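User: quick one, fold this
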Amino acid sequence: MYVINDSCISCGACEPECPVNAISAGDSIYVISAECIDCGACANVCPVDAPQAE
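Assistant:
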């Protein structure tokens, strides 16, 4: 599963890339839910490398 770390700048680039809609805006950064399928699509588009494999 991927998680989004504190380097997230809330740009939203990752959310539309998720094929299972597991990414949403949190209070201060985006968050990835348990539906994550480890595809890495979010990590491929993030400008600050915030999504990381757990």
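User: anything notable?
Assistant: Helices lie at 41-45.
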